[in-house]
């Protein structure tokens, strides 16, 4: 099952910086937890990738071939199915990068370093607790089960940042670049050599199972922590005046995409090299078919390059769609938690109405083949229809919670 999830820090900016950036409208943009205007460009991108994340999970629970094969397996997939999966690759790296950017903005927006460090430590621990309880139960409708994905990785990253934010920002940026670019070089390491410490390798570096525990680690923490450090390191770009920021972010995005293309051509930075295909369309899909588990250097460059360009394009968005994306983007964790239960419950109810035993949808991560063998599933057009219906159902709740956070400053709200 593919997973994506939202960042947990709130983007902040001081009023002079926000005014110079030209990104906020005090009557519409809302405020941060510190009572300062928000950066709409961050919230809008975050809202878009939340919508894409919902698509990913709707496909997981509703598509008839979701548990039959990997949708990026070029020997079995279709171009539309591949594209449906690939576009959701944008979710996790965007969320993690924006979490790092948000931590930087909080560091200059009014929170003292000790205060921010304590908050990140508590917030990170809280995310890990949510991952181990509320989130995994939503995916499984059964507990206990270990399912460590990006919420756990973000939590671990915040705990790491609680210590690293005491270091100079350029040094944190250097650490992030080194991790993102270099962790793949250890892909051939045999964790069995570590003996009793082998589970630490699974938790930090490579997906896998932990001995004696039912479940699996989908998102080993360290590569994703590297992306968070990278976001924190490039944070100053987001407080430049609007025109300079747009040029800087566009240049960074294009540099990432050019670097991806060159590395892809040279077969460097991804364990799955470009495989030449006889069909030109599938040849292009193979070029884009980068590795997410764990996130390779090529994967990070391609997805972040696209996401940064989307962020710049979304600044021009106006009208109802913008309001919808802002509602999701200002309530990322709340919307994330809600959507898991909505999607899973909808699959169960529609499946039971169609004659599929309810037990098929309970413990779905433990026996995914049973879902496929039961005959459950819809075609892609129906999956898209369910996705839009789920987004429509989520919107009023996300909008209500965004307004609640705008009106009130209760401490507990900072944890949702």
Structural write-up:
This is Membrane protein, putative. It holds the Pfam family HGSNAT_cat. Keywords: Membrane, Transmembrane, Transmembrane helix. This protein is mainly α. A two-stranded parallel sheet has the order 1-2. The relative contact order is 0.16. The N terminus is likely disordered.
Overview features:
transmembrane; two-stranded parallel ribbon; single chain; Membrane protein, putative; mainly alpha; transmembrane helix; HGSNAT_cat; 2 strands; 416 residues; disordered N terminus
Uncertain runs with pLDDT below 50, 5 residues or more? 3-31
Give the strand order, joined by hyphens, for the main sheet.
Answer: 1-2
Q: Major sheet, described briefly?
A: 2 strands, parallel
Distinct helical segment count: 16
Characterize the quaternary organization of these chains: single chain
User: Would you tell me the overall average pLDDT?
Assistant: 90
Radius of gyration: 21 Å
Order of helices and strands: HHHHHEHHHEHHHHHHHH
Number of domains: 1
Structural class: mainly alpha
In whole angstroms, the N-to-C terminal distance is: 24 Å
Q: What percentage of amino acids are in beta strands?
A: under 5%
Q: Overall 3D geometry?
A: globular
Tally of extended strands? 2
Protein name: Membrane protein, putative
Region (Disordered): 1-30
Pfam families: HGSNAT_cat
Keywords: Membrane, Transmembrane, Transmembrane helix
